[in-house]
Design a protein that fits this description.
By secondary structure, the chain is an all-alpha fold. It contains eight helices and two strands, in the order E-E-H-H-H-H-H-H-H-H. Bound molecules: fe (ii) ion (2 copies).
Length: about 230
């Protein structure tokens, strides 16, 4: 799903309705929820109108949405800077977005339980992914990354091999998410929440894929004495 209908160069299209923004910009539902803006049933109004209803400054909401829309900077080349980038851009983002995706998924599965295309099991898969990722990221942050940043001179084959195995598990989760969401294509009659859910899951998968790529193919080989198979 594209974000160009509502977001261009980090700016929110002023004509877009709250529902359209929620459906096309991953993470927008969390921003709206924070400001108590109804994006689902009452989403057919402009952002200004919805914000006025709740007595919030629309510019505040717009600024939060624009942050979500910004393209991430290119990954830095130094290992210490790359570790900081991975944590800020990917670990923190997964932690921020997964709970909202679990909530959205539980709601969609409950409200549309009789729909033939309901993504049954998606919420449980996302909840398990959140637990597994948290466990994995903690190991990186507490063991592997400090060794890298403290200028460890030897090879780190052992911990890196464990992380690579866990990345293979994440790849299996990604395939399960693709299958459950029919490659992120909601049915024609999907509500805003359903569309927002699949858009958010697609963003999670894109982020996780980039995240694993940066570790497996850029960072880890610098600290391994043997090539990974
Ligand atoms: Fe990581
Ligand atoms: Fe990792």
């Amino acid at each position: 799903m594209t974000t160009t209908a509502t977001v261009a160069t980090g700016r929110i299209n002023p004509d877009a309705t709250v529902g359209e923004i929620a459906a096309s910009l991953a993470g927008a539902t969390a921003v709206f929820r924070r400001h108590k803006i109804d994006f689902c049933c009452g989403g057919n109004v402009s952002l200004d109108e919805a914000a006025a209803k709740r007595g919030v400054d629309p510019e505040l909401v717009r600024a939060s949405l624009a942050n979500l829309a910004q393209t991430p900077p290119d990954a830095p080349t130094g290992s210490v800077e790359l570790v900081a980038h991975i944590i800020a851009r990917y670990h923190d983002t997964h932690r921020a977005e997964l709970p909202e995706l679990v909530r959205l998924s539980r709601r969609v599965e409950a409200v549309h339980r009789d729909h033939p295309e309901v993504p049954a099991g998606l919420a449980d898969t996302l909840a398990q992914a959140a637990i597994d990722l948290e466990d994995h990221m903690k190991k990186e942050e507490q063991i592997l990354f400090p060794a890298i940043c403290d200028g460890f001179k030897g090879a780190l084959d052992g911990p890196i091999m464990v992380m690579r195995h866990e990345h293979d598990d994440h790849a299996r989760t990604i395939r399960a998410l693709q299958t459950l969401t029919h490659s992120y294509e909601p049915p024609m009659d999907a509500c805003r929440s359903w569309q927002a859910l699949y858009n958010g899951v697609e963003k999670l998968v894109t982020d996780l894929t980039e995240h694993i790529h940066l570790e497996n193919n850029v960072l880890f080989p610098r600290f391994q004495s043997v090539r990974a198979l």
